[in-house]
Design goal:
The protein has three domains: 33 residues, no CATH class; 297 residues, no CATH class; 51 residues, no CATH class. It has 14 helices and three strands. The termini are far apart.
């Protein structure tokens, strides 16, 4: 092993007698030779570096997989946002094809229900899609870029406010589980929040010079009712299908569903399609729409009833646009307003009935569960015979450790109770005489 020598100055230094360590060269100066030695620490360091080298590639592979998953989630989220924006714009363009009082105001506006359901299911983070979709709809319809931005902001705030109110006061995405929450949903999402979009939209058009202030009330009413109907008819359908997409029907129920669809189409065409004679149209035929929806509520459930409500609304809209049905008036806009008001009312009533039926079924399920637990408890009581043995002479429980273990195990398995272990006064007196004497002197009431 080689070494490197260099002189160092030492005050009051003494020459060392150890060989191979230092050699005196002059007064106060030593030639110190430092040798390189292969000590175990160096070998351990090399082994550690080798270990890190062999284990680092799998770690980098795991990091790459995590990065891929992160980018995949990000890409999937962006695709979902794009799909929502496209769906919003398509639904909006279809609704605006029925605009009468103004090119931007229609009595049929499904995007409100789509946006509300998306915010309730996916969270507030999807609001950019709503803003983009609303902007695309309006900027390609009428008005200027400024009015389109104002309308898009109003549509987005409407959806955000509706989702916030439903989450805060109406049980959020499960707002259709209880009848009281259904009515809260109708009030907050269908009546209150929709005023934001109507006010923002009509005011933007009036300020931009694309609508006259004299028509403000009629345009506002059409705008508001279209948004309200969209929230009350479309949103329940999307909420219920997003919560449960599977269809599990027995064969008999599937045949009943086919017969129900046939009856629904017949009723829709009879009321709104002009299948009945002309002299019958003066009668209140619209009430024939209620029995099929009640049938769906009791026999199939909320999801199927909401689907039937949307299908019936589509049949009613198609018939009314063709000039047939009980809601046809002198102008198309008036006919659509009456139709949307009726269908929104029917949809809310149907959802309330469905909620009551669902609550009753849940109560029956809980009652059956309680009855089953009581039966099990009654059966288990029969097994208590012989669990603890009592002396027939002194009527005291025999002091057997195994008996108490069996009793504790049984109670822990069949209830939420538990034994509390401690010392009785007699055992304290026997085991801890000094402690007993002190306690008896200070707290005599504890020992009688």
């Amino acid at each position: 092993m080689g070494g490197k020598s260099f002189p160092i100055q030492v005050l009051g230094a003494r020459s060392s007698s150890e060989p191979g360590t230092s050699t005196a060269t002059s007064a106060g100066t030593f030639d110190v030779r430092i040798y390189r030695a292969r000590i175990p620490i160096a070998a351990a360091a090399r082994e550690e570096r080798l270990h890190l080298t062999t284990t680092s590639p799998p770690m980098r592979g795991t990091e790459r997989q995590s990065a891929k998953r992160m980018w995949a989630r990000l890409l999937g989220g962006l695709v979902a946002l794009a799909i929502l924006a496209i769906a919003y714009s398509i639904a909006g363009k279809l609704g605006l094809r029925l605009a009468v009082v103004h090119a931007n105001a229609t009595a049929v506006w499904p995007p409100t229900g789509l946006a509300l359901a998306a915010l309730l299911v996916r969270g507030y983070r999807v609001w950019p899609s709503i803003l983009l979709g609303a902007l695309l709809v309006n900027v390609t319809t009428a008005g200027s870029v400024g009015t389109s931005i104002g309308i898009a902001v109003g549509n987005t705030l409407e959806a955000l406010l509706g989702a916030f109110l439903v989450r805060r006061f109406a049980n959020g995405p499960r707002t259709l589980d209880r009848a009281q929450d259904v009515f809260k949903f109708a009030l907050l999402a269908g009546v209150v929040s929709t005023t934001v979009s109507a006010t923002f939209g009509v005011t933007s058009l009036a300020l931009g010079g694309f609508a006259s202030w004299s028509n403000y009330a009629s345009i506002w009413l059409t705008w508001w009712l279209g948004d309200a109907a969209g929230a009350l008819i479309v949103a329940p359908l999307l909420l219920l299908w997003s919560a449960n997409r599977r269809i599990r029907w027995p064969r008999g129920r599937a045949l009943e569903a086919l017969f129900f669809v046939l009856c629904l189409v017949v009723v829709g065409q009879a009321v709104f399609g002009g299948w009945l004679p002309t002299d019958v149209h003066n009668h209140p035929l619209e009430f024939l729409c209620i029995p099929p929806l009640v049938w769906a509520a009791f026999r199939f459930g909320q999801r199927e009833a909401a689907t039937a409500s949307v299908a019936l609304s589509a049949l009613a809209l198609w018939g009314t646009l063709r000039g047939s049905g009980p809601f046809v008036r002198d102008t198309q806009n008036e006919s659509l307003l009456l139709l949307q008001a009726f269908m929104a009312t029917v949809a809310v009533t149907t959802m309330a009935i469905c909620a009551v039926v669902a609550e009753r079924r849940r109560a029956e399920t809980q009652r059956e569960a309680v009855i089953g637990e009581l039966k099990d408890a009654a059966d288990n009581i029969k097994t208590l015979r012989g669990l603890l043995r009592i002396c027939s002479c002194c009527n005291k429980i025999c002091n057997e450790a195994d008996a108490w273990v069996r009793l504790e195990t049984y109670i822990e398995q069949h209830s939420e109770a538990a034994f509390s272990h401690g010392l009785c006064p007699e055992c304290v007196k026997q085991q801890y005489a000094n402690l007993h004497a002190g306690l008896a002197a200070r707290r005599p009431e504890l020992f009688g």
